């Protein structure tokens, strides 16, 4: 069978079919208008559920059997436990023992802790993964070893896909730090507390069967119910669902690298010069070392000016919580807590609000929070001279990262990528990015340790910062500077075989990733 | 055209069609199993909504026009403002001025303040009402004057109908005491605060177009978002959306009638004798004068025993809030706040939790809260010797009330109806109720000022209270006692014309109401 290809709106060749399903090529940020109906999951009848609300099952296997686990099903999990997740591996261990084959794993993200799943990808239990493949699983896929084609979506794209019925989840397993026997659940307390469970919201609403697993069962009602028991079929008590020290990374600290600190300072100064940091503004900075430093610089500027931010979007952490507690930020709208201070603040402070990919990122909603942000700070593995961004592959072609909310955040009013000009002597600014995850028209500013490049489309920003004294350059100048130091980078070598598709926020395909050629 | 009728599981003759739609006759409390899919409302695209999240329209008419208001549409409103609502009448005034015809009004309940809508029922703007018709509108319908047939649903039945697509709401208008320009909204503060907006949840999730109307606009984000802006199309600012003193009835007081107090005391004593009032129990008492007194007696018993309730369901009020504040009730799970103390408590106390008909009552969910309650105290206009209950018609046949959550609450573990044996010298216990709203098998105990009747199906309650010294009688004895005093009541006289259908919680029809014969 010959695969047919079409060129999409960013010039990438896209197959007309992936995993046997038809593909819509990317048509531009707002180019594709979906007409249709949201997915309607099966109607359930209360008469089929226990009157006393006690939905407990003895163990994961029992619940999976009750839920009707069988060949070809799509099984979803969430990633609020990050690298401390203990549940996903168990699900597929049970499935493998039961001899179930060709499952699709649909996590909201995967982590190195999921490396044991390679065994189940190899023995046929898992057909393919739809979701980020950080680290080992991505490498496995890049080597062409996964039976099906991986499908990567943004957080918002994942919600969209479930809401629209593009992905029908047969069984969702939601690991919950606190839950009651009815299935109400939250992430705020218990030994495995992770703050919130927003990434599992779509799964709870749309999956045919929903299993809640907890290591902290409380009597009904579990308050607040971030996950509603009315959507839950079964509840399982387990000794441990996550490794606390790997769930929250207490070590998230502001960068000490002078280069990174300089990039952070330059970013904050740029925002100030461009008039973005004004009373009532909003920002999303993320949790990397540079991003944390930028948040701190924002705090300094706000203190100096006597102004405050109306809201900041999390990934929250101790630094952002400090800004909230100090009153410099009125609300944190939080998608995931990155440390215990974030968890505590969300539990105690009503102005630290849990959000979900529905409220924050779903492109197939009546608006979302992402486009309301005045400034968004994001990362990238590569950027090209057309400002296209890559976050999933490295310059050697290996698929090693998921997209998180990156694509969704591109709809912010000003999108800034603070990036070093090179990493391990490999230039970050390219003629063309290896994989296009976001189109250049949505990326406004590149801040590097050797200067700032503004997207020519943003004439307003160019005008506003013209006399700022900041080192404004063209992206070509930045690229040439890096290449003068590191040399022209080698291009990655690929086989023809497509190992993963990169979805845009609207369900279209913006790029594909191919198998890396063995050197 | 001759209407065909079939006899349903409680022996009532039900037409096979209502308002041109096929009818499923009631098959018993759990007798009908719906197989199908939830309704999938249209997929929306963020590109069609303002990037800055500002969805404001100049006025109600502008928003209705934008929403595409046209003949035959279904327009929904909520009743959290009760008799102080200022919005529903305006909608249909606008529609009438625009010359729009044959609308279906789908309120979560209607009140005497909606009497002006009779004009629009008469001029053809409104075809019929699906929802409770308390007072004047019910009388209008009972006189056979409404063009279409009314459809009455419980709060849970209303959610079920919307969720299942049995009712497709074209335009929902949600009056919100506080909202932001994106459409996030809550009922907790502002001049028209009503506590929560749970009755509008289904409308916000499933309606094709959603309009939020507020008299207290705040900058994004409005926290908490009981209604999510991601479901909202338009936002309107208005000077006043409700009359505060009619929204919350500050006059809700415990009964001073010695008969009612005695009934309340007897009810509490019965619960105690039956072993229902134990540590960690749960109850729902409602907000009538007798019900409030029962709550107070529960409090006394708990104090005496040194125990507490795990949760109580509201309609909340100052008395229930006092129990919460005193620690005798650990959580209030609240469907609507009946006074300002309820509003304040919900705003300030995280253990006073807002609920919705989805969590509390939806029969087509994976369980709901109603069946978890140890004891539920409800009212009735009539009960019959088979323990069937009526809450919508009076004994003269007039449709004067909605059902609220009554049907849904019948799934509680023990359902008690504390009722006087007669009202205005008309006996309440009948051979047959005028309208069956709930089947006798779900009603466990009748408590009157002249004794307690236990449903023979509840052998456990009969055994537990046998030696309690309480005045246990048969329902026949109670009925005869009332008739000895008041005489055998006259039966209401009806025309053949069906003016309203009474839906069961699962969408089947349990009874119909006919036009009352003019005397």
In short:
The structure is a homodimer of 519-residue chains. With 519 residues, chain A is α/β, with parallel strands linked by helices.
- Give the biggest sheet of chain A: 9 strands, mixed
Largest interface: A-B, 64 and 65 residues
Question: How many distinct helices of chain A?
Answer: 15
Supply the CATH superfamily name of the largest domain in chain A: Glutaconate Coenzyme A-transferase
Number of strands of chain A: 30
Assigned CATH architecture of the largest domain in chain A: 3-Layer(aba) Sandwich
* Rg estimate of chain A, integer Å: 23 Å
The fraction of residues assigned to DSSP E strands of chain A is: 15-25%
Q: What is the domain total for the residues of chain A?
A: 2
Q: Can you tell me the residue ranges of chain A where pLDDT is under 50 for at least 5 consecutive residues?
A: none
SS content category of chain A: alpha/beta
Looking at how many chains there are and whether they match, the oligomeric state comes to homodimer
| Sequence of strands across the biggest β-sheet of chain A | 18-17-16-15-19-22-26-27-28
Question: What can you tell me about this protein's structure?
Answer:
The structure is a homodimer of 519-residue chains. The first copy, chain A, is an alpha/beta fold. The first copy, chain A, has 2 domains: 53-130 and 167-247, Glutaconate Coenzyme A-transferase; 258-492, Glutaconate Coenzyme A-transferase (3-Layer(aba) Sandwich), CATH 3.40.1080. Chain A is built from 15 helices and 30 strands. In chain A, the strands form 8 sheets. The first copy, chain A, has a 9-stranded mixed beta sheet. Chain A has a 7-stranded parallel beta sheet with strand order 5-14-13-10-6-7-8. In chain A, helix 8 packs across helix 9. The mean pLDDT of chain A is 96. At the A-B interface, loops of A face loops of B.
């Amino acid at each position: 069978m010959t695969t047919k290809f079409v060129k999409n709106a960013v010039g990438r060749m896209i197959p007309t079919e992936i995993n046997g399903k038809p593909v819509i090529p990317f048509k531009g940020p707002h180019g594709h208008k979906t007409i249709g109906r949201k997915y309607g999951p099966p109607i359930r009848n209360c008469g089929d559920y226990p009157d006393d609300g006690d939905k407990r099952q003895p163990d994961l296997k029992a619940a999976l059997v009750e839920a009707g686990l069988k060949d070809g099903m799509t099984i979803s999990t969430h990633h609020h436990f990050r690298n401390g997740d203990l549940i996903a591996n168990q699900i597929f261990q049970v499935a493998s023992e039961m001899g179930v084959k060709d499952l699709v794993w649909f996590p909201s993200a995967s982590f190195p802790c999921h490396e044991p799943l390679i065994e189940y990808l190899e023995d046929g239990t898992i057909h393919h993964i739809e979701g980020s493949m950080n680290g080992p699983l991505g490498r496995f896929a890049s080597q062409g070893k996964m039976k099906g084609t991986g499908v990567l979506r943004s957080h918002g794209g994942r919600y969209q896909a479930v809401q629209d019925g593009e992905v029908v989840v047969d069984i969702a397993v939601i690991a919950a730090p606190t839950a009651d026997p009815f299935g109400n659940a939250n992430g705020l307390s218990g030994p495995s507390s992770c703050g919130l469970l927003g990434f599992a919201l779509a799964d709870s609403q749309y999956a045919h069967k929903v299993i809640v697993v907890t290591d902290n069962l409380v009597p009904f009602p579990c308050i607040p119910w971030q996950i509603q028991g009315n959507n839950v079929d079964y509840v399982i008590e387990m000794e441990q669902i996550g490794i606390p020290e790997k769930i929250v990374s207490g070590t998230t600290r502001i960068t000490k690298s002078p280069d990174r600190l300089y990039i952070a300072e330059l970013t904050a100064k740029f925002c100030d010069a461009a008039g973005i940091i004004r009373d009532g503004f909003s920002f999303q900075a993320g949790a990397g070392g540079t991003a944390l430093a930028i948040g701190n610089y924002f705090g300094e500027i706000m203190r100096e000016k006597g102004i405050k931010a109306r809201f900041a979007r999390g990934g929250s952490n101790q630094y952002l919580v400090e800004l909230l507690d100090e009153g410099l930020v009125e609300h944190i709208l939080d998608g995931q807590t990155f440390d215990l201070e974030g968890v505590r603040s969300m539990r105690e402070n009503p102005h630290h609000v849990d959000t979900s990919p529905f409220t924050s990122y779903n492109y197939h909603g009546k608006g979302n929070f992402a486009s309301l942000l005045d400034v968004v700070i994001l990362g990238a593995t590569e950027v090209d001279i057309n400002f296209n961004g890559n976050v999933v592959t490295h310059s050697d072609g290996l698929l090693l990262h998921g997209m998180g909310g990156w694509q969704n955040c591109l709809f912010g009013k000003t999108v800034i990528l603070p990036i070093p000009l090179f990493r391990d002597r490999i230039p970050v600014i390219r003629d063309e990015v290896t994989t296009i995850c976001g189109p250049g028209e949505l990326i406004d500013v590149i801040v590097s340790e050797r200067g700032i490049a503004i997207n020519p489309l943003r004439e307003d920003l160019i005008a506003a910062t013209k006399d700022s004294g900041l080192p404004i350059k063209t992206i070509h100048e930045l690229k040439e500077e890096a290449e003068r130091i590191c040399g022209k980078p080698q291009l990655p070598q690929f086989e023809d075989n497509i190992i993963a598709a990169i979805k845009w926020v609207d369900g279209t395909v913006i790029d594909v990733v191919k198998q890396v050629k063995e050197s």
